[in-house]
Amino acid sequence: MNTLIKNGTLVTAFDTFQSDILIEDEKIARIGLNLTADSDHLIDATGKLILPGGVDPHVHLDLPMFGTVSSDDHYSGHKAAAFGGTTTVMDFVVLDSPLPEGEGSGVRQGDFQYSVDLWMQKAEKAAIDYSFHMNLTQFNEKIAKEIPSLMKMGIQTLKVFTAYNGRLRIDDGSIFKALQIAKDNGMLVMAHCENGDVIDTLVEQALAAGRTSPEWHALTRPAWGAVEATLRMAAMAEQAHAPVYIVHMNAGGEVDMLKYARERGVKVMGETCPQYLFFTIEHLRRPDGAKWICSPPMRTEEDNARLWEGLSNGILQTVGTDHCPFYFDGTRPIVYEGSEIAIPGKELGRDDFTKIPNGLPGIQDRLPVLWTQGVGARKISANQFVELTSTNPAKIFGLYPRKGSLLNGADADIVIWDPQKKVKYGVAQSHQRTDYNLYEGWELKGYPEKVFLRGKLIVDGTQWLGKSGDGKFLKRNEGEVL
Ligand code: URP
Ligand code: ZN
Ligand code: ZN
């Protein structure tokens, strides 16, 4: 099937130019002026921008946590992503996965193949393309030996944690060894940077003092912990001669550490997320503050500003979402595709901030919000927008130029973007399967009009044309260090 998109303005990470674009089956076949073809579909994109589909490097779908599960699965989350202009997402496989039904209520410990198979099963309902990172939440000799086998499964990335003691964290020696193994096998370590020991101490003290409201989530996870853990990770990476990617950067001091390390040749890259650009600890002080609970937490306006600077001056490489939604009130069902569904959420921690599931919705919001507040407000250019949200994630995670580009032969993941479209945004426009939206009532200008996944039109205005099972698992190769 052929589709010819005429008279649009192509925006890539490098360039902006008038061109037609021809899609043949799943691929971009030709780019140029005055294209003619016997096409099944002709689309006039006069006044519209043509962008490569967004690549979200950081999402958590169907993730068990705090006795519940993140409320978007690999269908509903993908559908929401598509409505926001994203056509590829990268999800995290949990290493200690639940045992099969009938084998008790425990977990299978440290079995990569078992966990990946389980995640593959969950993702059978995929509606856009996807790949996986592996959470490296245990480390021993057996696991060390098996890490390279992940490459054969198409998984080239390991996430390590310097927080969540006793659950997800492995010690610094193990992180260092993981960096060495990654380096020897063309893999990349991604790091969640906070100080788990300080957090645990502060949480214990806060609870003992009866401080249980959501703001204490932020007050017990200080920015200095994120700052020193970021420098620690960069230092370990340098000593292991390995690259490292810092996820969900949230503090201005982390940007300083990244700059310090990068100026000294350390191969350290950084991702931030929209929530850290817009919100502060003040949001946790609202009566509905639990909506903003995620880890790491919201910081200050100064941190917001320093992160924006990091995006505009190239210190940070990507904007992901860390999409990990929960209902604000999971006792009340919402209607999703005609059926009522309720999933326990933030209310689980009504009396104790440590029991509030950590995470926020954002998979659909990322591109429209960043466009309005970033490109519209002239904090970043349209080319930087594409670079941060599509091209760089594709490059770093070994998918470029198949994804993240508008090049002949690339997958025809294309967004026709209407830069003039105004939307009063919120839960009513969002397909994220939760009962709230962080950007409720925001006036957005610039919005996806049509979204193609490998040549198939899956979003047409407000119409969903995609379907469960259309998404493909993407085996990834060694990525680039940017
Ligand atoms: O609060 C968050 N971010 N939940 C998801 C897990 C993580 O650490 O990224
Ligand atoms: Zn994390
Ligand atoms: Zn995350």
How would you explain this protein's 3D organization?
It contains 14 helices and 23 strands. Strand 21 (443-453) and strand 22 (456-460) form a beta hairpin. Helix 8 (223-239) packs parallel to helix 9. Helices cover 28% and strands 25% of the residues. The protein has two domains: 2-52 and 402-464, Urease, subunit C, domain 1 (Roll), CATH 2.30.40; 54-396, TIM Barrel (Alpha-Beta Barrel), CATH 3.20.20. The model has no long low-confidence stretch (mean pLDDT 96). The longest helix is centred in the middle third of the chain and has 17 residues, at 223-239. The chain has helices at residues 76-83, 112-122, 141-146, 149-152, 172-184, 196-208, 215-219, 223-239, 252-263, 275-278, 281-284, 301-312, 366-376, 382-396; strands at residues 2-11, 16-24, 27-32, 41-44, 49-52, 54-59, 64-65, 68-69, 86-93, 97-98, 107-108, 129-135, 157-161, 188-192, 244-249, 268-272, 318-319, 334-336, 339-341, 414-424, 443-453, 456-460, 463-464. The protein is α/β, with parallel strands linked by helices and 482 residues long. Bound molecules: N-(aminocarbonyl)-beta-alanine and zinc ion (2 copies). Residues 58, 60, 322, 324 line the site of one zinc ion.
What's the structural blueprint in terms of helices and strands?
Layout: E1 2-11, E2 16-24, E3 27-32, E4 41-44, E5 49-52, E6 54-59, E7 64-65, E8 68-69, H1 76-83, E9 86-93, E10 97-98, E11 107-108, H2 112-122, E12 129-135, H3 141-146, H4 149-152, E13 157-161, H5 172-184, E14 188-192, H6 196-208, H7 215-219, H8 223-239, E15 244-249, H9 252-263, E16 268-272, H10 275-278, H11 281-284, H12 301-312, E17 318-319, E18 334-336, E19 339-341, H13 366-376, H14 382-396, E20 414-424, E21 443-453, E22 456-460, E23 463-464
The structure holds N-(aminocarbonyl)-beta-alanine (URP) and zinc ion (2 copies).
